[in-house]
Structures are given as structure tokens and as C-alpha cells.
Amino acid sequence: MKRYLPYAIIIAVFLISTVAGVELYQSNQDQPSARTGKLAFGMPGAAPPHVRGPAKAPVLLEEFGDFECVPCSLFYPILKKAKTDYGDRLSVTFREYPLTKHTKAPEAARAAEAAGLQGRFWEMHDSLYENRLVWLNASSTRAALIELAAKLGLDMERFQKDMDSEEVTKRLAADRDRVGSLELDRTPSVFINGDRMTMRPITDENLHAAIDAALGNKK
Amino acid sequence: MRPSTPLWEIKNEIVKAPEPPVVDPNGKSAPTRRRRLESSLYILAALIALVGLGDSIYLTVHHLTGKDVDCLASGGCETVLTSAYAAVGKVPLAGIGATAYFSAFSLATLAGFGRRWARSLLLWLVGGMLGVTGWLLYLQAFVLHAFCDFCLLSAALTTTLFAIVLAIFFTGTRATRRLPQ
Predict the structure, then answer these.
(1) CB contact B62 to A (< 8 Å)
(2) B138 touches chain A (CB under 8 A)
(3) Do A44 and B57 touch (CB under 8 A)?
(4) How far, CA to CA in Å, does B53 sit from each of A16, B5, B71?
(5) In Å, what is the CA distance from A26 to each residue of A21, A123, B5, B64, B66?
(6) Which of A10, A28, A47 shows the shortest C-beta gap to B65?
């Protein structure tokens, strides 16, 4: 009898741990209201990230955007409306992904990050999209970006210094690493609770449908 | 002695008489006490592996359900557990850890019950686990710049497991050091 005792113990532990794992899984699944969204797996990106909304919202939307790209500028009002519609149930994270083919996007990304160092990222983000043609068509992109920043009432001496700072370079590099780890090739790339949104074009309707699906609401 | 046996064969039959075992006042020999100590250490290793199994199951479930892990001290759980290194393909790393801890538990239990073949297998397994643990600690410290409590607990458990198994292996009786037969 003693000969089989270790095997009996091993089988018992296997059964108990399997049952405990399944129970824990089911108890976590049974609480959709308390569920927190998740981000896509990959390199972590710049920390802290630029987040609009509560960090533990049930739906976490992560956008990889470029301030120069046309689809991103079209997506901007759609996302802003969705954020208004869903309130605290939706959290939006913005990641810098200036495409290499866009000559002015890196400078705009630096401007947004420099504003972020003064805690004004989202104001600069909105201003960059809303005044996209202004700074894109300006004879000096940098001068136009500085003008936008001045309108937001930023500390301009610090802003100009931060635009070329190592800290901004590191943040952009960290976001680029995340882009690479997720193997992205276009902007805007959107993830909802870790799943890439593949519907094209991103319209008001299909963004709402995707958020509803993530919330567990069936229409 | 057989009269017909040649002299050179007789020499070969001469063997050293075994040394009398050291007997303690309770009437138990030193090797018996050592075997008991080893068995106790293997049972301790099995219990440590059991704690590691619970830790890994918890992390696996949270990985699969996408729920937040309650980080106690470090605050870097989310960064670590949602990083690219938290899964191998679609398989959560914590799930692989759970399999490793369960295997360590099984081998330690078998070794504790006197199955010699399990002992060196356990040493190899825990050695491998220690290697992976070292790599994961490096990732947390130098790549992700964030630490996860549950990962640190696992690292401590694996290190303790390795220390116990290694200590038994090198201080154990000759029999415990034999390779699987």
C-alpha cells in the first residue's frame, strides 16, 4: 500500500489544483461588472502612458497615432465622441507612432510629448489634430508648433528645451519599441482590451459596436 | 576454501569486511538517520513546490481572464504581466511555471518516498527552473524596469528549492547521488 502512496498524493494534488484553478477562473469570469479591460501584450511603451479616463475602466482603448496622417485626424473626432458617450467606462491611451514617410510627424510627436512633460499632453494632442493643416502648411513646422504651445499657455522656455530633450527621445523610443513588439504597420492602429480592431474604415458606428462588444452589451 | 581453486582466484575473493555501522543510543544507524533527514528535506521541497504551484495558478488565471493582479508592494505587476514576455506564443508563461512546479512537486514527493531515479531528475528540473528565473529577473530589472510581487515570490521559491535539492545531492549518501538506473 505504501508503495502507491506517493502516486496517490501526486494525483490528489493534481486534481485539487485543477479544480482550484477552474474555480478561480470561473469566479473571475462571473463578475463582468467588476471586470477591468486589458492592454495588448507587447513591450510596455513610454511610462507613464498618456491616458484619458480611469486606469481600471472596463474598456481600455489604445491608439497608436501619427499627427500627420489623414486617417488619424479623421479618427480623432470619432474617438473623442466615443469617450464622451461612454464616460468612465472607456479609457483611452495614446501611443506615438510617427510614420517614417511623414516628414513633419516626428516634430509634432516631440511637441506633444514636450507638452506632456508639463502635464498638458491631451490639450496639445487635440490642438495638433484640430490645427493639423495650420502646422503642416506652415513654412516652419517648429515655429507653428511653438505657436500652438504658446496658445495653450505652456512654459515656452521649458517647452522648447523639452522638445529636443533626451527624456522625450526616450519616450518616443519606448513607444516605438511597443509598436515593434506588436508588429504594427499603419496608423491609426487601435486595440480594444488587447484585441486589434480590424474594421475599416473606423466609423462612429463600428467603434461603438466594438466598445459595446468589449463591454459585453449585445445590440 | 575449495582445494581445487587456483591461488590467483582465491586472492580475488578476498574482500574487505564492511565497517560496522555507527549506532546511536536510540539504536538507529547514521545512514538511516541521514536517509530520514533527506526524506524530510524532499518533503519540504515538495511543500515549497506546492506554494509555487499555487502562485503560478493564480497568475495563469489572471492572465487568461485579463483581470488585474493585486500587487502588494512593487506596483509593477501590470507592466510585467502584460509585457511581451508574459506569454510564449499564446501560452501564458505562468502556465508553464505551474507545469514546472507540479513536476517538481511530483519528483520531490517520489524522491522523499525513496524513489532514487527521481532525485537527479529533480535536480535537473529545478536547475532549469533556476535558469529561467534568472532570465526573468534580468528582464524585470533591465528591460521592463518593473517588478511583480508574484514573480519575485516565484523566484525566491525556485532559489530555495534549488538550494535544498543541491544540498541533498552533494551532502547525501553515495546512493542518493547515483544516476537513474
Answers:
(1) yes
(2) no
(3) no
(4) 11, 63, 18
(5) 9, 42, 78, 11, 13
(6) A28
* B154 closest CA partner among B72, B49, B79: B49
- CB count in 10 Å sphere of residue B90: 6
Asked whether the CA dihedral B108, B110, B112, B116 is positive or negative, the reply is: negative
Residues A65, A94 contacting (CB under 8 angstroms): yes
Nearest to A28 among B61, B84, B112 (CB): B61
Handedness of CA B21, B27, B30, B35 (dihedral sign): positive
pLDDT tens by residue, chain A, 219 residues:
678 888 999 999 999 999 988 888 877 765 544 445 667 777 888 888 999 888 778 999 999 999 998 889 889 999 999 999 998 899 999 999 999 889 999 999 999 999 999 889 999 999 999 999 999 999 999 999 999 999 999 999 999 999 999 999 999 999 999 999 888 888 889 999 988 887 666 788 889 989 998 888 534
Residue B67, number of CB atoms within 10 A of its CB = 16
Query: What single letter denotes the amino acid at residue A65?
Result: G
